[in-house]
Amino acid sequence: MTALSSGTARAGRAPDEDAAPGGAPAAARRRRGHGRSKDVDAPPRWSHWLLGPLAVLWMIPVVMVLGISLLPTSNPSTTALGLFPEEPTLRNYVTIFETNPILQHLLNSLLVSVPSILLVVLLGSMTAFALARLRVPFRGVVFVGLLLALVLPMASIVVAVFKILQAIGLYDSLLGLVLAYTALGLPFAVIMIRTTYLAIPDETYEAALVDGASAWTIFWRIYFPLGKAAAAVVVIWQLMMTWNDFLLPLVAISDNDLKPLTLVPLAYRGIYLSQPGALFAVLVLISVPIVVVYLFIQRYLVNGLAGSVK
């Protein structure tokens, strides 16, 4: 009877054995600890006070460009801050479509950007897989060469690219621009996607080999889908480089019918010299596609950047 009572007492005290010295149970301690870890991971409050003004300063040029694009030619007066017109109008956008083949230039930009993006993502993913998982001779030398190619500025190689396009008969052609942008975008794509592929456990690759999958099957069905976040970063990078570039099309394209949208302000600078609103309307049109693409893939972009940091 005494043993039964003592066992019952011990059983009754069992739930309290995890109690904290202050009387709080372990579950409460865990909840408090979880809350503290969230507070530690959260950004400090002062960062909002710092980043807020910086964001406002960054937006001032954007607002100015948009405001000047709405500036009427007949009454170019603005507000006190000079950021936005008092009488905004969309007439400048109508003017650039009436006086220039904007749709043709837009199509040329698409015919250069879209194929180069697809080639860079596909070829970059294949090269990244080879450097990450296959036994490639001189793999370290290849990777160092990619790093060196990544730091070269466009101005230092534009003459060489011009000479190469002339030698292979692709000067003054959109195909030449596509191949040039593909070659220039591959170093960043390979380095970015390779980092993601290296984060995939080796056991995944070995298990697929044991199941009889070929290297191509492993790449296409496992690694390529898992690298879509890094591919989104490459898409944005390549789109910005091809869509916004001014120097290479200026050197490699002389036919007005083949010029991309970025050359419109230069090609018609004589017309728009007295019409700043029309000139800035073209600049807004150049920026819109990149903003739209970013809004669609921003989730993958953030995940890809976070994965590369890890």
From TrEMBL:
Residues 106-297 form the ABC transmembrane type-1 domain. One of its GO terms (biological process) is transmembrane transport. The chain crosses the membrane at residues 46-71, 110-134, 141-162, 174-197, 218-240, 278-297. The keyword Transmembrane helix applies. It is a multi-pass membrane protein. InterPro entries: MetI-like, MetI-like_sf. Residues 1-41 are annotated as: Disordered. Keywords: Cell membrane, Membrane, Transmembrane, Transmembrane helix, Transport. Its main location: membrane. It is found in: Cell membrane. It holds the Pfam family BPD_transp_1. One of its GO terms (cellular component) is plasma membrane. Belongs to the binding-protein-dependent transport system permease family. PANTHER family: ABC TRANSPORTER PERMEASE PROTEIN MG189-RELATED-RELATED, LACTOSE TRANSPORT SYSTEM PERMEASE PROTEIN LACG. This is ABC transmembrane type-1 domain-containing protein. It comes from Cellulosimicrobium funkei. The lineage of its organism: Bacteria, Bacillati, Actinomycetota, Actinomycetes, Micrococcales.
